[in-house]
Amino acid sequence: MGSIRFQGVNKVFGPASSGVKVLDDINLDIAEREFVAIVGPSGCGKTTCLRMVAGFEAPTSGIVSVSGRTVTEPGPDRAVVFQQFALFPWKTVRANIDLGLRNKNLPKDQRDDLIANALKLMNLESHAEAFPHQLSGGMQQRVAIARAYVLDPEVLLMDEPFGALDAQTRVVMQEELVRLARVNPRTVLFITHAVEEAVYLADRVAIMTRRPGRIKEILDVRTVRQSENWDRFNKIEDVMDLESFVHLRTHIWRSLREEKGAQGV
Amino acid sequence: MTQAPLSLSQRLGWGLLGVTLLLGLWTLLTATGFVPRQFLPSPLEVATRFTTLLTSPFAGATLPVHLASSFQRYAYGVILAAAVGIPLGLLMGWFRLLDDIVTPIFDALRFIAPIAWVPFAALWFGTGMGGPVMIIFAGAFPPCLINAYRGARFVEPRLIEAARMLGTGHIRMILEILLPAAVPSIIAGLRVSAGLGWQSLVGAELIVAAAGVGFMMVQAQGSVQTATVMSGMIAIGVVGMAIDVALRQGESWLRRRRGLES
Description:
heterodimer; A: 265 residues; alpha/beta; six-stranded mixed sheet; 9 helices; 22% strand; B: 262 residues; mainly alpha
């Protein structure tokens, strides 16, 4: 299991001198098995943070490292769940999940076992031979999560994974993710602009400023969750009713609204 | 101007009208003697000649035998173009360096008409099978390469990122991600290739010494048998049309299949 570290990370799109600065001196440590959500106004560079951990983009200066190793390129130790699912349309659910395992050169029977587990974990057993377009958005995102989980990655990177889903499906998926996190805790970097989602899912929530994005504040949700015993509830609405939840949520809302105010919106 | 779409039988009807008008004009021009018959044979003369050619040989073979011989060269040329063009296009779509090396050469070569290769084709590969196949190849190759390349180059970036994140290597990336994503573009390219290859046929057969529709036409031209030349033209047109219809059927079948599957 891995940790994530941002050390003095800056990112400029375009030429270093005249380009657009999107990230300004990001410093963040995510411990093993910790779930950190980044929230921020749109365009603040939160997705860029995730893409740098994934290895899709390099920092202009500073270091992004996973388990102490500087990230240089994408790899299966850092599995990504994309907002638009990014499933391969010409592959079945099974084949989509299998690709990463085949790339690891695992023997067939071992892959079959791992796929069976992943399908079961995400309640996809009856859809193994379906093609992505035959599934609903929520189902497709389950496949994408299964495809990431099955790799047993050091860290899981989720880029607004429920942003493309309808409200009801979204809630189901959020509860599902909490269930997964209890069964099998992972190091997760979760990007979202939905404040409730961040508070409900994360151990810590990092709030970013508008562009150029800086980390304005990091909230410890886990302490509150444990002291108020949120985990006794299985339904998100029960947790969302708690005073401790409301308090945190309002705090983040205010903080984000200041950013919007500063932007003149 | 917008119109309601026509039914298939209506469209066939209008198409038939066009053909009839053309034949009518042709008959008028020849029957009145407005155009001398050594310049333009009458439709009836051509039809008679065409029928005769189906069974009695000219320039060593009947028209169907010439056609079969042409079609064989054509098939080799197009298959070779696909076999080289599609893999090369996919590789160029993935390896930027290869793209940079090949593209300038290719961009210059593709403007050379296939028929311009005739002297070298004959010199290098002879006038039997090799030379004509090379000329058809020259006609059919560019769309194969360009469409495979574009299909591979413009795959949705998210899918490439997903594959890279899953640790996919180069070979698997090309075979399992770029190729399936590029299939619609490749099929469209194959259709264009098939058409251009068939168009290059007569040029290719200018240098043939034995059989083929082009060869037959060149021989007939030598002895001013205009009706025979015209018969060859009609045969080329009809077969070309049939090839296109067949490929279009194949393409729409594939689209329907992908519609279900992708």
